[in-house]
Each structure stands twice: as structure tokens, then as C-alpha cells.
Amino acid sequence: MERRRLGAAGPELTVTGLGTAPIGSDLSWAIWWGPQDEADAVAAVHAALDAGAGWIDTAPFYGWGRAEELVGRALAGRRDEVLLLTKCGTLPEPGAVSREDNRPETIRADLEASLRRLRTDYVDLLQIHDVDRSTPIEESWGAVQAAIEEGKVRFGGLSNHPADLVERAHAVAPVTSCQEQLSLLAGPQDPAVLELAPRLGIGLLAWAPLASGFLVDGFDVETLHPDDFRRRSRLREQAPRIGRLRAFAEARGRSLRELAIAWVLAQPGVTAAIVGARNAGEAAAIVDGTDWRLSEADLAELAAS
């Protein structure tokens, strides 16, 4: 698979990696993807690596540690084959999906817990998961830098942060990456990040490139478990556009999934896409679309669709 440098001085990544939010799914977590078998989750990790994915993105938030524990179990004896990306700062909150706490002491505690669950001495990229406006980003970013100096983290990144906070963090120490929602159906809360990041030499990691499954042929939201969060998704309103995108792909002998990945990888500044999977079959498809180079005419047609 093609590899790209993450930012100006980060590691080289395969253009797709495994996302683990779906395998972290259980009923204790508000963003439930339906029943998840642990053996399937471990098999998904193995299949992604066997298919050529060189990295895994996870977070304490995904099932409140369940995804990290499953990744740690799956990587027994294979840690050296893969780069591990995780996050910090998102905590449980009774009566809510979560709360953000990016104080330095929370970042340190989150990292130590992640290392235990992942069964490793270090992670390759530690990302502040979301915005905590009550803690200055300079303090939070300083804690990430301290972890880098201690050798527990190789590189630092931000996830779902607006351009103003990215700039402030980058003034303290280089930001290696920004992780943002990006697909044919949805973009980041602050689109300015997509322009700012490459200008500052920051890599872009796209989460939900398949729009949580809505950009996969055969996906039918009506067949999901009644409590699956996707039943409540506003993406359901985009059914007409999804139909046009499917027709575009079919006219070129490609799948909707391939189109979704190819489009994300064609966006300026994007290093790689985080592709979620819940079983070995889905994970083996992690390479789909990585060989498709959309033309300028293709991109213009998609923008108008």
C-alpha cells in the first residue's frame, strides 16, 4: 500500500489504517454500534495487519478502554509490526456522552492507563481527543511534550480541534497531526483546519471516511439493532446523494466504498484515512480504493453531485 509522511517530520503511514471505535462498542458506551463479539474484534485487527495496514487508531473513549484492551490482546507478539495511535482527555460523564478534561494530570493518567491496556511501553502518536475550553491548550500540549521527552510517546497530535487552538499549540511545539471528520457526506466542525494544517506542515488524518457505514454498498440502516446510534444519524437524510455517489462509482466499475476512500485520499493535505472494521471481512477490505486516483474532472463532478 502507498505510504505518506505524517506532517513535516512524523512517521510514514500507509494511506489507510484501522479504526477501532466500532470494536470498542458495548452497552456501557453511548455510541453503540450494536453487539460486538470479542473474537471478531481480535480477528479484525489481525486481518487489517495481514492486508497491509501499518497502523491502528484507538482511544480510551472507545468503549471506555474496551477497544484498547482488545487491540492490546490482538497485538501480542506483533507490536513491532504496527504503529499505535491513541488519544487522551475524554472521560465518562453520568447523564452525558462524555466530558473533556485536558489538564496535564488527566493526560498523564490517561496515557498510563492506555499503555497498560495496549500492553506496550510507548505509543507512536498521542492525540488530545477533543476540546477542553477550561484548560489552556498550551498546558495540555505541554503535557504531551513531556510524555514525548519521557519516551512514552513518539509524536503528538490534536483531534477535532479548531484552527485557533491548533495554531496556539503549534506555537508551543510542532503539532504532528490533526485528526478530523472527513467524508463525502460530512466534514470537520471547523473547515479552516483543512487549509491550516498542510500550511503549517501538519498531517491530516480523516476519521469516518465511510460515514459510519453509510458509504458502503449493501449498508441498510433499517437492519441495524434498534439501539444502534446510526439509526438516529442525520446522515439518513443524505440518501439521495448517496444514490448519486453509488451511480458514479458503478459507472466506473468501482464500489461506493472504494469511491469514499479514494475521494478522502485525494483531498489536499490528507495523509491517511482511518477505516473502521468490526470483523475480519471488513478489515480485509481496508485496502479498497487506495489504488484509485480520481481525476480533476472526477473531483469536480463529485463536488457538484
Briefly characterize the structure:
By secondary structure, this protein is of the alpha/beta class. It contains ten helices and twelve strands.
Describe the protein.
- The chain has 305 residues and is of the alpha/beta class.
- The chain has a single domain, classed as TIM Barrel (Alpha-Beta Barrel).
- Helices cover 35% and strands 17% of the residues.
- It is built from 10 helices and 12 strands.
- It has helices at residues 38-51, 66-74, 104-118, 137-150, 163-172, 192-199, 239-251, 256-265, 280-284, 296-304; strands spanning 3-5, 12-14, 16-19, 55-57, 83-88, 90-91, 99-100, 123-128, 153-159, 177-181, 203-207, 270-276.
- The strands form 3 sheets. The chain has an 8-stranded parallel β-barrel, surrounded by 5 helices. It has a two-stranded antiparallel sheet with strand order 1-2. It has a two-stranded antiparallel sheet with strand order 6-7.
- A hairpin with a 7-residue loop joins β6 (90-91) and β7.
- α1 (38-51) crosses α2 (66-74).
- The longest helix has 15 residues, at 104-118.
- It starts with a strand and ends with a helix.
